[in-house]
Amino acid sequence: MIREYLKEHILITDGAMGTYYDRKKSENGRIAEEANLLEPELITRIHEEYLEQGARLIRTNTFAANHAMALGRGVRDRREQDAYVKHVIRAAWKLAQKAAENRPEEIFVAADIGPAAENLFSEYETDPAAEYRFLADCFLECGAQIFNFETFSDIKYVAKTARYIKEKCPEAFVMVSFAANRNGYTTQGISISRLFAEAAQTPEIDSYGCNCLLGAAHMYKLIKAQNLAGDKFIQVLPNSGYQQIVRGQAGHADGVHYFADKMEQMVELGVNIIGGCCGTTPKHIRMLCEKLAGKAPYEKLPVVEKGGEDAVSQTRNNPFMAKLQRGEKVIAVELDPPFNQDAQKLMEGAFQLKQSGVDIITIADSPLARARADSVLLAAKVSAMVDIPVMPHIACRDRNRISMHSTLLGAHINGIRNLMIVTGDPVPSGERDNTKSVFDFNSIRFMEYVKELNQEIFLQDAFSYGGALNQNQANEDQVMKRMQKKIDAGLSWFMTQPIYSDEEVEKLGRMKQELNTKILCGIMPLVSYRNAMFIKNEMPGIQVPDEIVAQYRPDMSRAEAEDVAVRISLSIMEKLEEVADGFYFMTPFNRVSLITRIIHARKPQ
What we know:
One of its GO terms (biological process) is tetrahydrofolate interconversion. Residues 1-292 form the Hcy-binding domain. By secondary structure, the chain is of the alpha/beta class. It has 2 domains: 2-292, TIM Barrel (Alpha-Beta Barrel); 313-525 and 582-601, Alpha-Beta Barrel (TIM Barrel), CATH 3.20.20. α19 links the parallel β15 and β16 (493-498). The N and C termini lie far apart (71 Å).
């Protein structure tokens, strides 16, 4: 029925439930979904108000009806949570159906599902789609045939659930809308262009589009830039405007006429389904109905496909990446940024390393969560003054998405083309009251974000990026699964923890053979007996065998200990010859001269 209606009409949905409920409710701290049980008359009345103003599709009051809601209400037992969520959904369905019955025109009721599992599960958990299957089953038991997944930042679980729904109810109509910022990226760092393309290629999805986060004007610009071609229906439900605080209360702009004008322009792009999200009210829906009365759907504008010259290039201004891709061994050396404002030692070290033929200098990002000079700013300085490729480490610990995006733009402007992306060491527990971690991304999600930016912004001069590999973790299969996720996210090389044992060499050989990836093997010279004991006993993720420590003595001179360090490093490098695509030197105590000595002593290959 809804498919037939959409062939001839623009379908106007309701507006916001949550923010409109907040306007009407007493100060009871209650969320809208809870009101399905405690204030059913009010929820029914809100549905009726939207219908009276011309909406032809209403969404059940269930955006946040999931196990997280049950947990938030103090329900701990899983079976009791299941029962509670089912109770809320059934009540919401009945209220929407009650509002829709006995109307002169056909009314569509959509089962509304918000992004529950994104908040309930981590990347290491089992299939998060189980949460969505449970919610879908609740609605299917109620008789739902229209499903609306809204405010999503990824399509993965929606696509799985859509297939599940269609298997159980082939005639179901599945709608999905994504929430993106003005730049066209979701909170997962995925571009709307990519999500639209994937939705268009997913047979079980009938309609896709955007909702929330943006007002009508910015959403219009975003939709206008997308490829809407194909036989899918397009839906758009923007906010009434941007949130503002008035007398301590959050609210949204209320420009009803402006909103309707922009939505009329939206329809001219070929949008089939329109309505409102946060801040919209029955007034907005009435104005939409007046503006669009009698209008048929517009044809989608054709999109000119980009030519092959726009293929992502990662070697255009990147001699390090070009050398790595040619199969030549590369040498990367890490320099530690200073704790103070004096970067003289680092700069002198960079000049020495360039003269020794090093391919790239890497700069750590406040390792062990101790504040140091900014890695990207220092890398830009080294690049400009020493004229050598640089690779700043970027940790996800300290920056939110806005800051990460800005950092990437600034890095690219300053000629940086190589990045080392890491999740970042956690803030020590004793400092967490005063220092907060951010972690909007982990390393994999940030890699996916950079991959998106490479395809959208840096198309012909893209970033290349590597990631960390801890070969000493116990579960080798789990390590390789995580490595594969990073490769899928666009990673070009791995940089390992320092290597000291034959066992590690063999393990890296297996990983390289299995995954066919580039590996830069970590070499960290141990400069004294004390240093060897410290690394062996206190540094997580690094294994120093007893036979390595035994080569040092507590009474060794600096020169004697460095001789041992050179000998051990060269021996390890020789063992890694068939495995390593290059070597990644970690400089102990800024002893750049020791690193250059090892580089010069290495036999020509």
